[in-house]
């Protein structure tokens, strides 16, 4: 099988149900989700040993779900029956967030991305996820989208924040507090 098709040489690409310019907002949006998926794969590859088995399993599932997000955004015209991203996926992310939050110390200040390499990589995932979410919001102003994709990405960035903090805890490295601010957070429970 050849990997190149030459069909995009003139600046267009295929979406489900037609062709669009490679710089179309729709392509930019699901391309950003694809970029995020690459960083998630990188983070998963940094998770060695049993101490990260649960997080690694989450990330593998998330990679599949990010493909689902991209698929839901790759249609020229959508019908609800074809949606892959569902509300229960968002609810499961919330359960994971709550579980990992129990492992982390209470926040008093904003934190900077860093600590362990794994934590830093998960913070990259968080920020790329936020960019993907912004692209989805913009796309939703121009065409019908599955609203669960937007909700999923919003919750996913929260997951990455908590996962990054959990990675530091499990790695025995404290979060790096942003010390130029007052204490802004109260009790986490």
TrEMBL record:
Keywords: ATP-binding, Cobalamin biosynthesis, Nucleotide-binding, Transferase. SUPFAM superfamilies: Cobalamin adenosyltransferase-like (SSF89028). Pfam families: Cob_adeno_trans (PF01923). Residues 3-167 form the Cobalamin adenosyltransferase-like domain. The keyword Nucleotide-binding applies. It comes from the Bacteria. Its EC number is 2.5.1.17. GO terms for biological process: cobalamin biosynthetic process. It is an enzyme of class 2 (transferase). Pathway: Cofactor biosynthesis; adenosylcobalamin biosynthesis; adenosylcobalamin from cob(II)yrinate a,c-diamide: step 2/7. It catalyses: 2 cob(II)yrinate a,c diamide + reduced [electron-transfer flavoprotein] + 2 ATP = 2 adenosylcob(III)yrinate a,c-diamide + 2 triphosphate + oxidized [electron-transfer flavoprotein] + 3 H(+); 2 cob(II)alamin + reduced [electron-transfer flavoprotein] + 2 ATP = 2 adenosylcob(III)alamin + 2 triphosphate + oxidized [electron-transfer flavoprotein] + 3 H(+). InterPro entries: CblAdoTrfase-like, CblAdoTrfase-like_sf, PduO-typ. One of its GO terms (molecular function) is corrinoid adenosyltransferase activity. PANTHER family: CORRINOID ADENOSYLTRANSFERASE (PTHR12213), CORRINOID ADENOSYLTRANSFERASE MMAB (PTHR12213:SF0). Homotrimer. Belongs to the Cob(I)alamin adenosyltransferase family. This is Corrinoid adenosyltransferase.
């Amino acid at each position: 099988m050849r990997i190149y098709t030459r069909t995009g040489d003139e600046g267009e690409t295929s979406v489900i149900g037609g062709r669009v310019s490679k710089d179309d907002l729709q392509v930019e949006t699901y391309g950003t989700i694809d970029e995020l998926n690459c960083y998630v794969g990188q983070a998963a590859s940094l998770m060695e040993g049993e101490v990260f088995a649960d997080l690694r399993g989450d990330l593998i599932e998330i990679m599949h779900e990010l493909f689902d997000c991209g698929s839901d955004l790759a249609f020229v015209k959508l019908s609800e029956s074809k949606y892959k991203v569902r509300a229960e996926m968002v609810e499961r992310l919330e359960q994971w967030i709550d579980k990992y939050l129990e492992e982390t110390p209470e926040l008093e200040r904003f934190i900077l991305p860093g600590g362990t390499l794994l934590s830093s990589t998960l913070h990259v995932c968080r920020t790329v996820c936020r960019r993907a979410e912004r692209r989805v919001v913009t796309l939703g102003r121009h065409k019908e989208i599955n609203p669960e994709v937007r909700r999923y990405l919003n919750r996913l960035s929260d997951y990455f924040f908590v996962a990054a903090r959990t990675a530091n805890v499990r790695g025995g490295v404290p979060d790096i507090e942003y010390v130029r601010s007052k204490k802004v957070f109260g009790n986490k429970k």
